[in-house]
Every structure is written in C-alpha cells, then in structure tokens.
Description:
- Chain A is built from 23 helices and ten strands.
- Chain B contains 13 helices and ten strands.
- Chain B is an alpha/beta fold.
- In chain B, helix 4 packs across helix 5.
- A four-stranded parallel β-sheet of chain B has the order 2-1-3-4, with helices on both faces. A four-stranded parallel β-sheet of chain B has the order 8-6-9-10. A two-stranded parallel ribbon of chain B has the order 5-7.
Amino acid sequence: VSSTDFDRVAGPGGHPERAARFAADDARAHWHDQALWFVRAKRDRAAGAVADWERLRDLAAEIKRHTRGRLADYLEQFERNAKAHGAFVHWAADAEEHNRIVHELLSARGVTRLVKSKSMLTEECGLNPYLEARGIEVVDTDLGERIVQLAHEPPSHIVLPAIHRKKEEIGELFHEKLGTAAGVSDPKILTEAARGHLRERFMAAQAGLTGVNFAVAETGSVVVCTNEGNADMGTHLPPLHIACMGVEKIVPRVRDLAVFVRLLARSATGQPVTTYTSHFQGPIRGGELHVVIVDNGRSRLLADPHHRRALACIRCGACMNTCPVFRRSGGYSYGWTVPGPIGAILATGRDAPAHASLPFASSLCGSCSDVCPVKIDLHEQLLQRRRELSARGLVPASKRLAMRALSVVLRSAWLFALSGWLMRLALRALPRGVLYGRWNAWGRSRELPAPPAESFRAAWKKRQGGRRAG
Amino acid sequence: VRVALFIPCYVDQLYPRVGLATAQVLERLGVEVEFPEEQTCCGQPMANAGVAEAAAPVARRFLDVFARFEHVVCPSGSCTSMVRNHYDALLGDDPRLPAAKRATMELCEFLHDVVGVEKLRGRFPRRVGLHRSCHGVRELRLSSASERLEPRFDKVGAVLGRLDGIELVPLQRADECCGFGGTFAVAEEAMSVMMGRDRIADHAAAGAEVVTGTDVSCLMHLDGLARRDRRPLRFLHVAEVLAEGLA
C-alpha cells in the first residue's frame, strides 16, 4: 500500500488534517465511533466471561517476552520441523524480497489466479499491486477485504477492513460490481452474493495464499484464524499454499496457543473464538506448502529496547476499537497499513519523517495499554516516540522553541508568576475579537477560562498573612 | 500529618479557588498544610510534547522544591502521575526520585489511603457526574479501569460517597477520555472537541447537574465547550465539591 492510496481516500496532510476531514461529517464520525464502541463493549463482556483474564494477559506477555529473547532459535526450530513435514521455508529480508519470492513461486507454476485470505503482512508489503502488475489476478476472499478490494481502497482497520463503509454503500458497490439488485443493502443478501461470487473464484484458483496468526516452533505448523473459513477454502483445492508470516508470529509450543487463541478473538471482536482455527502442518496430498518468513524491519524493532515489546502484537485491533481518537478519525487518517496506537508506533519506527504526526494523534489516555491482550505499553511507547521525534528534530521548530521558552519561565518562580499575571491581564483586557482570533485553536469551539483576580500563590500569601496577624 | 501542597501551574494561575479548596479540605481534616512558594510546574507540558531537554530541568526543580517533604498532595491526577510514572524517563537515577514518588499523591488518593475516608462527613445533595480522568484511572489506579477485568474499586467515588445526598449518575462510558490531552487539545483540535462534546452529552443525558473530577485540565476543556454550547452544567473540581460539602 503506498501513501498515495491514503491521500486518495483520506486527502493530504498529517493525522490532524485527515482526522478533521473525517470528523467534519459529524453524523458519520459518530456512527463510526458507535460501531467500534459496540465492538469494545462486546470485547468487555467476552473477556469478563473468562476467569483470570488479567492472568492470561500476563502469561501472553511473558511468552512473547521469552520468545523474543530466543527468536532466531525458535525460527530455526520451526524451519526444521516444517521441513520435516514436507513444507518449504523461505526467508525474506524485506517487502521486495517477499514479493519476489511469492511471485517466483506463482510464475514457476504458471499461476495466474490467486485467492488470498486476510494477511496484513501482504498489505504491508504491497503484494497485490506487485502481482497484478505481473499479470496475476489476486482475489481477497475475506468479505471485508473483498469489499475494499472491489472499491479500490486500502483496509481501514486490520480486523474490520471495511468498517468505514455503511451497508448501503456496500449495496451500491455490489450492485455495480457483482450485479446485486439496485437498492439492496440487507447484509444477509449482500453476504450471500459475495459468497456466490467468491465460490467461483475459489473453484478457479490455482493457488491459495494465507497470512499466519501463529507459527508453532515445536510442530512446524502454521495456524490461521478466520471467521469465514476462507483460508481453508482457498488452500484445500489448489495444489499450492503459500503462507506469509512476520518473524514475530512464532510461539514455542502448541500449548502456548491455549493462551493466545483465548485472547485473540475475544480482544478482536468479542467472540469466544474465531469460527475457524486452522492448523497447517505440511502440504495437502500431492500439493506444496511454502512458508515465507519476513523480517521487513522487525529485527530493527527487536533491537530497540524502547519498542521491542511492540513486536508482541497479535494484530487483534483492540487498541483501535478502544482508542477514542481512532473511533472518531477513522483508520485512513493514520496513512499507514496498520492504523491506531500500535500503527503509530510501528509506522514511526519504519519512516519517522513520513509519520511524524502519528504519535501525537493520542491524548495519552492509556486505554490501549489496558486493553492490549499482550500488555504492550502502547501509550508509554507513543510518548517515547514523541521524545525520539523531538530529538531528531522532527517536531515543528515552533513547538520546540515554545517548549524551551516555557521551560525557562518555569525554572523561576518570579518569571512564572509574572507570566501568569500577564496572561490573566490579557484574558481580561483584550477585546474578544483579538482573544478569539484565528490564532486561537483552543477558542474556535471552546471558551477560555474566566481569569481570576489573582493567582493561588497571591491568595495563599494573603491568607497565611491574615492568619498570622489574627 | 503535615503535607506540602503541590498546586499545578495552571491551577495556580487560573483556578486559585481549587487550590484554596484543597487546602481547606485538608485542614478541616486536621492536616497541616504548607505551600512551598518556589514551586512552579511538574514539567508535563514539555514532556508530553516530547521535548525532554525542556522538561527535565523543570522536573529536577520539582525535586529541589519537594524532595524534603514526607507527603506531597496535589489536586491533579495527571500532574501526580507525571512525578510517579514519567520522571524516571526524564531524571533516571536522581537519588531523590524514589522517595519523591512515594510521597506524591493525588488529593482523593491521599484522603483515601492516608487520612481515611471515615473522617469525612458532609452533605452535597446534587446529581453529580464524575469525570474519571485518564491518568487517575490508568496510571494512578484511583479506580478500576473499564478495560481491566479485575475486582472493581473506586477511591474517588468512595471519597465523594461520604457526602450525604450526593447521587453519582451512571454514565454510558464510565472512563472514556474527554480529549483534553495537553497540546493535543489544539494540535488535534477536531478530535479534542468531538471527544469533549461526547463526554458532556453523556453527563447531560445521565441528568448530572454538576460534573466533577480529579483534574482541572479536563474540566477546563469540558467547561469551555459547555459554555460555548450553552449547556447548563456546573463544573467543579472534587476539592470544591468536598469544600462545599464539608462546610
């Protein structure tokens, strides 16, 4: 996915400009907020039904920490075991190499029709346009992914790719692309139409590509979680299954899945478990299974003591659903494949200048950190990203200058008191037209505080003086 | 008990009544209150902007002023959390830091954990919306966060609950952010304003007459919106509610 895709769907600018554009349609922004709050509330109920949810989160974080510390060993163990079961394992250092490997596998077997189940990694790598430019038809088979693919849009959410679209709009899209009756927006009818359309693609596919939710080192198997069974449908018929995974997807043992599978669907959608949890160990009879293991910046993240915990992310999207900013600004406002709090951390790790506004697209409310099933300290990392951006000169010079000036004032009690006095004077004396001029972003929709006659320190001095006198 | 009052910079300059109410409540409960006049600010505005080199000297100055006190009490969850949770990243190994972190407490937290709520007695017969400021909930753990599946607790509610006649109205979203967020309020103005209006609507729909909270910053933002939109809500800091209720 290129940044121009996001310019197209969300307009130019950084997060504040795109968010303002999204929020300008107040009814729609509130609809989006409510839709995702509903998912958050469902997650609360599902998590509440599990005894010791917080203990599960602790365990998940511990397993991820342990695995991170021995990542290379577990990846090699996975490779040995996967090969022993007849799978092929490929290593890709970056997106380009990943795309090349996938394309070579397909073209060597004359594949021109590929079906895909959901994979944020291939979105990250820009696989679809890469293959399409080389004459391969790629059909995303997850319903939400198919919707945004038909609309020529990137996904706006990692679990709910078409959450920004209302059912009426999907009805129009399906009318145009799939020939459903005009004006039909009943989700059941639309889903049925998509299902029929996708069945044809499944039947005609020459290869299936899936993402990977978990790769188990001790068994060499990959695990894919879907609600629509599309990963299974796409890989049971064609002779070639390509599974693409980031290096961080590895877990040591099958029993570790007991922790993560319980956390994943509950955190993502509030379901106790995804409808399908498919384990692939070796190829189907007469077929081939290729696992492509991708780094693409992950080892750099692993080497960063402040941000390596972000590698624990299991892509559940809970931090997006709970984020009061994401719910009101939409996924496109982040301008990157993975939006929301985790996206802001990952995107700035990849290209800080391009994504410098993202760590500031947060009130630092901390809801993301508390909802995260693997206990990534998301809001602390956002704050850390701000420090890094500032240290690299990537926050506006005016802001840094203002903060340095403020710092000088706050290092002296009398300068501080004087500045406060001047501020109160300005609040009292300046005409409203000046006080609420264009410069005042606070005052566009908010009143300024009514200035008191004196500061606390002045009032306190009088009070204590009066007491001593009395 | 003797405490040092830590009055946030903007409270000092714009909301002296909240500082005075804080002192009044503490003194009424037999706490001896001192205001170290050399204090200015905890450094949070600069720290949250990411400008660590501007924040660190102000944070160090905070320790210069407050390190000698056994108890430091502050009418703000966010500024308290700055000291307790974010000074490490700025000051690292300053030997005074561990003690200062232990000493610094938010007002309700101090009343609940040190003074004891049973000493509180008063009356405030109003329908009150309690705005749970994020740093109080998720960084200081003044009440259980809605995200966490743990036994419910609520220190601020327990303190306010000592006032006869007070009715804390139930909210649709118990601890969603109001959108103040420091420089976020202007840098992400559209988000900030929408989040604030949504909080106000929740309190209004629940029938609140008064909205209170542990942080004047959130209340200043909400009050600014409510006044512009001509919403008939009163915004009072918990210290003001307590001062009015205990009187």
